[in-house]
Design brief:
The protein has 699 residues and is an alpha/beta fold. The protein has 29 helices and 18 strands.
Length: 699
């Protein structure tokens, strides 16, 4: 048996979300604050017996903020089970949660809803809008109840089903709570904790204190019940030894003297009549179960024989490894029990753990028969995870969306993507938007252009810039689709249009012209394939340099920057002057050819690196690059981000006008009206790169 899906409605930052799971290891990826912990906690509410019993009594802050007013709404969390077999361990679970359709499927649902009295009042107020609103306004969190049901077949993520079964909050119409549809809501039951084994390894932060804490230590959990496995003879010997130790300590003269001293002070202070009789005794527990709970961990060093010290001497990483080891041992011991299923949930194992250990931990449990749920924002772990076993959380304007990146991809396509997603490229799984580029020239220069010209980094925009090494555009961009990752992916590549006019007769081509023609024909084929690939997919779009990235950088009027790098390439003044003259030529066939020659001479990557040292706020970003940036952002940017870029542009040299013409005073006079400042900037600087970007945004 395994969990095939988790559905969450109105819980924390999940308004309406569905996770899809496979057998084996399942990875939940997401940026900080996207809801990874909340998703795992929703799973734990249903199945983790280690949680306090009153944990299901939720608070008003547990309702999703996107609801607006939480009053009257329900929190609904469901897990769907697959392969509920007739195995003895599954029988009770199948009896309580299995659907009555002869399938091996089942559903367990948790509801946090208004109590019957409130639901009845809402139903009786139907037709009276004022009365319905009054009932809602008077609802308190104490009016809510928590229940579990099995076999529910209603999909509360569906707006129609939610409106019919919970209530239509737009029209204030609510169902009759006495007309219970057991097929939709399910049959009420007790929590099914006893039917499954559930081990939770929390995010590793302050582990040393947990290891020493009686309530939280996984060591204590492992030691509980161990006394029953110890022989009677060993148990009796230990009890006798402890009793002898207690007596020996208590009878020490030094201890007796302290005891008598305290007693005498009491006599002098309150007198014999009112003074309690006290003594000091050693009280090590003689009961074996209590004695075992006094055991504690010590740690040694692989390089120092015989040394063992306190846990405080460990590094954070070392303590975390011990904590994980204890929890995994706890999980392995639970496997011996005849349960319906074994679930291992690990929250963010990357905290303080070395890269190689992260990957090893993941890979070792990827082959285990138990179903594993692992949340992470580690690119190392995501690079070895299978995309068919991923759920990716996307956070956009405080709304969470859950993506399954392998939906409708065949195993061959998934395999190609997984082989290409190394630790660097897997950052695209966490980004708000993605730009795929051909090679190292774009990878090096574009981030610097954005930072120096617009005053903000691609990271601040949430954009991952990924080099594809001139290949795999179609394979990787397949991830971005309405069925899979609903984020925008821009592809930057070249038309490779010849910079030299080509003769109509191919037989007249020189070797150079033949090379130009071949590149141009390849560009046409590339464009045709990419346009076909991106057609009808709103999440992918290709953006083209007319010629190549280096040539189009010059076409954008960046000759000064290109000329400045010549001194880093040549030592002789004559060579510098000759190259400079070619770059200053008015014809693209001349300056373009020289730029490509320089790239070939020192390497495209090195030339781009040299140019980055000459980029300034007066450099121009090629328009197709700005187009790609806007698309990858979903053509949306927060006004605060745009305002920051406007202020940066105005505080640095700009080629569109002199300092005295800048609208700095307008910004100073209207600093509280961000939108007015942005509009003023575009009016006063219509030809600026930032104004062009703003014009592409949906505002």
């Amino acid at each position: 048996m395994y969990i095939s899906s988790l559905r969450i409605r109105n819980f924390r930052n999940f308004l309406s979300s569905k996770f899809m799971f496979k057998k084996g290891v399942n990875t939940v990826l997401g940026e900080n604050g996207s809801g990874k912990t909340n998703a795992l906690f929703a799973l734990r509410l249903l199945l983790d017996e280690s949680l306090p019993r009153n944990i299901t009594k939720l608070r008003d802050s547990d309702f999703c903020r996107n609801l607006g007013d939480w009053k009257g709404h329900w929190i609904v969390i469901s897990v769907d089970f697959e392969e509920l077999s007739s195995h003895e361990g599954c029988q009770m679970l199948k009896h309580d949660a299995g659907h009555m359709d002869n399938s091996e499927k089942g559903t367990l649902t948790f509801y946090f809803r208004p109590c019957l009295r409130v639901r009845l009042a809402l139903f009786e107020a139907n037709g009276d809008t004022a009365l319905s609103q009054q009932v809602i306004d008077e609802i308190k969190i104490d009016d809510y109840e928590s229940i579990f049901t099995g076999r529910a077949n209603a999909d509360f993520l569906c707006e129609k089903a939610y409106s019919e079964l919970v209530g239509d909050f737009d029209n204030l119409v609510f169902p009759d709570p006495n007309n219970q549809d057991f097929k939709a809501y399910g049959v009420k039951l007790s929590p099914l904790h006893e039917e499954v084994s559930f081990t939770f390894v929390k995010a590793l932060r302050d582990v040393v204190s947990d290891l020493k804490n009686y309530r939280n230590s996984p060591l204590i959990a492992l030691l509980k019940g161990l006394e029953s496995e110890i022989s009677d003879d060993d148990s009796e010997n230990i009890t006798t030894l402890v009793s002898d130790i207690n007596n020996a300590i208590s009878e020490l003269d030094e201890i007796k003297q302290v005891s008598c001293g305290i007693q005498n002070i009491l006599y002098k202070t309150v007198g014999y009549a009112f003074s309690p009789i006290i003594d000091i005794e050693s009280s090590l527990p003689s009961e074996l179960d209590k004695l075992l709970q006094k055991l504690s961990l010590t740690v040694g060093d692989n390089y120092v024989d015989g040394y063992s010290g306190d846990l405080n001497e460990l590094s954070l990483g070392g303590a975390n490894l011990i904590y994980v080891a204890l929890k995994l041992l706890e999980y392995e011991r639970k496997q011996d029990a005849d349960k319906a299923a074994q679930f291992l949930v690990i929250e963010e194992p990357e905290a303080h753990i070395h890269t190689h250990i992260q990957k090893t931990l993941f890979e070792n449990h990827a082959i285990n028969k138990t179903q594993v749920f692992l949340s992470t924002h580690s690119t190392q772990i995501s690079s070895v995870a299978k995309i068919s076993e991923m759920n990716i959380l996307g956070l956009d304007e405080n709304k969470v969306d859950v993506f399954q990146p392998a939906t409708n991809l065949n195993p061959i396509e998934c395999g190609r993507i997984e082989r290409y997603l190394n630790a660097i490229r897997s950052t695209l799984l966490f980004a708000k938007g993605v730009i795929l580029v051909e090679g190292e020239a774009e990878l090096i220069l574009i981030p610097v252009l954005v930072k120096k010209v617009l005053g903000i980094s691609l990271d601040e925009l949430g954009i991952s810039l990924i080099s594809m090494d001139s290949a795999f555009f179609e394979h990787i961009s397949n991830l971005f689709h309405s069925d899979r990752i609903r984020k925008h992916c821009a592809i930057i590549t070249d038309f490779d249009t010849s910079i030299t006019k080509l003769p109509a007769d191919k037989t007249k081509d020189t070797e150079y012209l033949r090379s130009c023609r071949n590149s141009q024909e390849s560009g046409v084929i590339r464009q045709r394939k990419l346009d076909e690939h991106t057609k009808d997919n709103p999440y992918i779009e290709a953006f083209y340099a007319q010629h190549t990235f280096e040539v189009d950088f010059l076409i954008a009027d960046n000759f000064v920057e290109a000329i400045e790098v010549l001194e880093s390439i040549y030592n002789k003044k004559a060579n510098i002057e000759k190259s400079k003259a070619l770059l200053e030529d008015k014809g693209v066939d001349v300056y373009g050819k020289e730029m490509l020659r320089l790239a070939d001479k020192v390497g495209k990557g090195w030339l781009s690196l040299l140019i980055t040292e000459c980029v300034s706020s007066e450099t121009y970003i090629p328009k197709y690059v700005i187009d790609a940036i806007a698309f990858s952002c979903g053509n949306k940017l927060a006004p605060q981000v745009i305002y920051k870029m406007c202020k940066y542009r105005l505080s640095n040299p700009m080629s569109v006008f002199k300092d005295k013409d800048k609208p700095k005073q307008f910004f100073a006079d209207n600093k509280d009206d961000i939108n007015a400042c942005i509009v003023e900037f575009t009016k006063r600087c219509p030809d600026d790169d930032l104004s062009y970007l703003i014009g592409l945004l949906d505002r």
